């Protein structure tokens, strides 16, 4: 059967925008090369026209130059047409790439949306509120435990706070009186040695003055007004 009817040929895929753009650009490069050659030929004919005198020879050169100029105008028209086609293909390619980018963006957003929905299902506002309430209760219990552990056992419960405040005020008043003189409390001032003579009010020691004339040892008196003890001489 295949030999009789033959095999159906598979259709080739249509050319892409990039392929069409590359093909047109190559054609444009070819046309540009032809235009450059025609420009060089025109310049050569211009030089010949300048060197020849008016007459049949100059007219023949002008005819050749006119022919080359017509070809150049034709190729320039083709080049402009190819440039327009390339521009259109670039615009289509830009629009196609923009649509592809939009499709990828939409796909990424859909995937992120599904992921967020799955995450939001596992997180509930009520659960967060309940957890916050439990944390506050635990903190209150912790504070009560700390206060209980920090309770002092040596302080009796029947102490009058007003009486303590009165003693504290009296202590502050005493400290204020001590610091009125020089601003230094008495318990911080340097120790001074007491003056024992002034405290005991004792008389000074005998100065050893001579007994006045006309008075005997028996009549002599000491500093306190008592009779002085006579000095005796011991003989051997």
UniProtKB/TrEMBL annotation:
Residues 1-30, 179-236 are annotated as: Disordered. Signal peptide: none annotated. Residues 99-148 form a coiled coil. The lineage of its organism: Eukaryota, Viridiplantae, Streptophyta, Embryophyta, Tracheophyta. Residues 20-30 have a biased composition (Basic and acidic residues). One of its GO terms (biological process) is vacuolar transport. The keyword Coiled coil applies. This is Vacuolar protein sorting-associated protein 60.2-like. It comes from Juglans regia (English walnut). Pfam families: Snf7. Belongs to the SNF7 family. Keywords: Coiled coil.
